[in-house]
Amino acid sequence: MEDFSRIDSITLDEWHVVGSLQELPSAGLHPTILLGERILVGRHENRLGVWRRCSCAGAGNDEIVPGDELRMIERFGYIWTTLGNPTRDLFEIVEFNEPDRNSVVQGVTRISVSAPRAVENFLDMGHFPFVHTGFLGEEPHTEVKPYKVNVYSEPPEILITECEFYQPQANADSDTGADTEYTYRIPHPFCAVLYKTGSTIAERRDVIALFGQPVDEDCVLVHIVICLATEINDLPAMRKFHQTILGQDKPILENQVPKRLPLDSRSEVPIRADAASAAYRRWLKERGLRYGVVIGSHSQAM
Length: 302
Known about the structure:
single chain, alpha+beta, 5 helices, 16 strands, 302 residues, disordered C terminus
């Protein structure tokens, strides 16, 4: 069993995504890793659940630890579990409860950085013209306009509003450029939700959620799901679009040094466009999170 003494209570007692219901096999157990712990997700004795994986000599890859079933929540089309003792329910995204919406699981991507690094990248509009050229941005439209950041204590989350950025192709159905309005929400240390214009219904926004599964401190499985207020015209094109975006991010993220997110304000020099990132780092530090981050400007990764 994993030694959890090195994991902070914020991380250990949180709910974490461990798999998509859509992508699980119809029978049997799927092995995965959460916070360094090998677990099994799936159906055992005709019942959906999450179990610790047996590490005893001679055990197979799908043998559970008898009597050691983990707590589980089904939400947003995913399975969530915990290795600790959560004091609160998993956050909600109300759009997923709207019956006329269409949800699309975009799959999972393994990225060799910490979960906080992946979340911070998701918040960064400044890289759109340079990393996602022709899709989410293009030169000379490189300015990140001022936006607002609000941090809440109960429930603990960050809301980033009034974001606006020119995008030549904001989504798979776009064929012309437009100014796109964004709202970001961070309701979980390793998850972020984006609400963006682009729907043909003016008063409703499309929702893109990033759920980070921390495999260990230097590796994350990024689960992406989209919740649309409109019909899906071309599902393969939509999946290709979002896989292309994440594929462009992956090598950039994996070349960042250090792989864990620095929380000391002196370690990297922020600019006005980095207000969301700066707030996210302060939020993690003030909450006492230590998993997947670097504390102090001269600290070494744990």
